[in-house]
Amino acid sequence: MAQNTSLEKPILHVEILQRRRSVMAKDVLMHEVDTILKNMGKTYVDSHIKEFPNSGLQEHILHIKICEVQDNADVKEVELCNVMPRYYVYQLECDGPGIEELNEGEEEIPAATYWILPAAEFDNYWENLVFDTNIKEELLNYIRTTLLFSDRKICESIISWNKVVLLHGPPGTGKTTLSKALAQKLSIRLEPRYKYAQLVEINSHSLFSKWFSESGKLVQKMFTKITEMVEDPQSLVLVLIDEVESLTCSRASCSNGTEPSDAVRVVNAVLTQLDQLKKYPNCLILTTSNITGTIDLAFVDRADIKQYLGLPSKGAIYQIYHSCIIELERTGIIVDSERLFTLKELTLIKMAESKVTQPSLLLMKIAEQSQGLSGRTLRKIPFLAHALYIHAPRVSLYDFLFAMEKAVQKQLKDREKISQPSPQLLPYSNLIPTPHPQFRTHPPPMPLSPNNHRPPLPSRTVHPFPIPTPISFYSPPPPIPNLTPPPAISPN
Ligand SMILES: Nc1ncnc2c1ncn2[C@@H]1O[C@H](COP(=O)(O)OP(=O)(O)OP(=O)(O)O)[C@@H](O)[C@H]1O
Ligand SMILES: [Mg+2]
Known about the structure:
Bound molecules: adenosine-5'-triphosphate, magnesium ion
CATH architecture of the largest domain: 3-Layer(aba) Sandwich
Pfam families: AAA (PF00004), AAA_lid_TRIP13_C (PF23242), TRIP13_N (PF23563)
Distance between the termini: 68 Å
Number of helices: 13
Order of helices and strands: EHEEEEEEEHHEHEHEHHEHEHEHHHEH
GO molecular function, one term: ATP binding
Domain AAA+ ATPase: 161-313
Protein name: Pachytene checkpoint protein 2 homolog
Family: Belongs to the AAA ATPase family. PCH2 subfamily.
Oligomer: single chain
Largest sheet: 7 strands, mixed
Low-confidence stretches: 426-492
Number of strands: 15
């Protein structure tokens, strides 16, 4: 992915999804697709070509995705003679995820989930994410610079970068989905460089050992496995640490003052391992968080990109709803549909009111009412609209839009009710179980205040451990004398 100079034509990225059963050589496919595109003259960014009449390609290609014009994020209509197409041919892996296990004593713990990329599961994630800024293009540019600097062997003690990305923001704003989508995109775009690509999602919670002081060692073991993968230069390894605050909680908030708590050892281990991975050009660490205030500053400092993902604007909401309605039309649930304009078309005609724009303007009004809802909730609204107000296998577009409007209003009302505190709710500290005395060492699970009341925990978000296990008060239990297994239950 070398940068084009201003004298060259801009690069148009084109992804070709080859059928799994096809064995046609990639360069032959690229050549065929090039001929098709040259004959088209003009095309649109973010469009799919699914039909290839008279070429015999139908048997080999599922679709051609016309992606972005590099460094020209705003270009949507492309004269093919003015760009230089760059082709990527890929086939999807359908095997689903695998589990990477680590042994901890006698036990195997599921330390990570991994996918061979590009995975069928993540296809279309990238296209279906809508953001108000060019976040996706910026992430791709970051990777281009990373590759360029690695290729030119830039001295890392002069200019340094850590290959760590942190996506943060409120719940349901697409952080995890964007991380997986980026991993998938890189596996497609970097295919000429790497023979294999895999995404390893670290299961942070399982790395917290039930044995005091062992969690840091588990983290180290996990990263040793990752390093083994990364040592193969033909393999691209994308590591996802979702909800990274659980592995990198601020050390200042989790030390008990005397000896380093288990959580501190975990943070130290993560930081050391990240520093060791940074020398490998074929490894990228993707992390997400919705409570960044609790993350250790040394980790935040290591992230090259700290990208905030916020709640979608009215325009982004319109696009998300638009894609939902197109899907319901494709599957025959919305029938006899009037034309729904894209956001770009509506903007071009300055939202002019007429009979043909009526349904689109109604959808825009619903988008406006939906401001404040997360991407996750927005993608649920069409489902709720149908479940609560339609009850029929087929529906007209107008009826569906009215149902959506009601579903949005219900969602907003329900949220309001939930955000009011309920007097019956127990304080959070009461939810932490008291460990069995046999597993307890001093000090007791929570210090008592002078008036003998257990002080409440500061808040859930600053509690450094996977809830609800106060690990640092545990030590390995002594062997339990005369422990016999429970009698087998007789089948009779
Ligand atoms: N900007 C967006 N555009 C389109 N869909 C979105 C957007 N944001 C979220 N979604 C959808 O919402 C769902 C949840 O997204 P995701 O799990 O990635 O959110 P998250 O930010 O990781 O949330 P959390 O902080 O709760 O883990 C996904 O189906 C995703 O496609
Ligand atoms: Mg998430």
